[in-house]
Amino acid sequence: MTPPANVIEISLQPGVEAQIDAALALRSSGGLEDALRALAKANESNPYLNTIRGEIEFVLGRYQEAALSYFAVVHAEPNNADAHYNLALCLQRSDRWDASCQAFERALSLDPSHNAAQLGLGASLLYLNRLNEALDAFHSCFGSLDQPAAFGKAVALQLLHRLGEAEAAYDALLAWDPNSEETLSNLIALGIENQDLDRVREYSQRLLKISPQSAAALQGLATVALKSGDHHAAARYCDRIVQLAPDCLEAWHNLRVALDRIVAAFRSPGPVPAASGAK
């Protein structure tokens, strides 16, 4: 499950300090590091300053620093739902799942219609394996977030081993987007869990057409080949996987199994030829 991507951006407000004005100009021109330096001497207690700083730090991937900046904002403006949401995103990107849940929940308590916070909460709950709560959170999403929320529901259902419901949810997602690599990858995993080799083959071949280097598609086809006794095909697929992902222990194991079976078949004695007739 992919979490929400971006913090909520702010725009220029009248009457801001000169340093903030300069930082915004630098941010607009792409000079993010320079923008942070321009903010260094500005008033640290200004929540607007900290909002800008947090936004820039988030874009730069400095999620823990951004979380500190947004924490200063929510401390100064405890009823600012967007600030709690932005703090939650930074905590989520820092793998602080419990804390991110609390921040998302605070944003929702201030603004129950904050759909992005509902989606973010569901994603964090998934990582915490609080699956039924995650499912409830995704069910509460609506409008523009219908599709990512539906994907979250499908993942939660799959992890809850409600496999029939999960498959139906993924099928609906494929109707929305037939080329969704995430959906096809999860359907491959679902088919393997259900031992439905025909479905695994179908989804793996579809995914391979979209993404010829997809490890999930290759793994699906390798699984089908191993289960079907086609060890040469399994070895080819596993060899491609280990070239793409040299650290994939499962692929190395399956490659060895396939090669061992090929060697064993080669060494097996053939049929005894018929004796020629006596002259």
What's the gist of this structure?
This protein is an all-alpha fold.
Quick one: CATH class of the largest domain? Mainly Alpha
How would you name the CATH homologous superfamily of the largest domain? Tetratricopeptide repeat domain
Mean pLDDT: 84
Number of helices: 15
Envelope shape: elongated
What count of structural domains? 3
CATH architectural grouping of the largest domain: Alpha Horseshoe
Which spans have pLDDT < 50 for at least 5 consecutive residues? Answer: 10-16, 275-279
Q: Can you count the beta strands? A: 0
Described by strand count, sense and barrel closure, the largest sheet is: none
Structure description:
With about 280 residues, this protein is an all-alpha fold. The chain has three domains: about 15-110, Tetratricopeptide repeat domain (Serine Threonine Protein Phosphatase 5, Tetratricopeptide repeat); about 115-160; about 175-265, Serine Threonine Protein Phosphatase 5, Tetratricopeptide repeat. It has helices at about 20-30, 30-40, 45-60, 65-75, 80-95, 95-110, 115-125, 130-140, 145-160, 165-175, 180-195, 195-210, 215-230, 230-245, 250-265. α2 (about 30-40) packs antiparallel against α3 and α14 (about 230-245) runs antiparallel to α15 (about 250-265). The longest helix has 19 residues, at about 250-265. The protein is elongated and about 80 Å long. It starts with 17 loop residues before the first helix and ends in a 12-residue tail after the last helix. Mean pLDDT is about 85; it is low at about 10-15 and about 275-279.
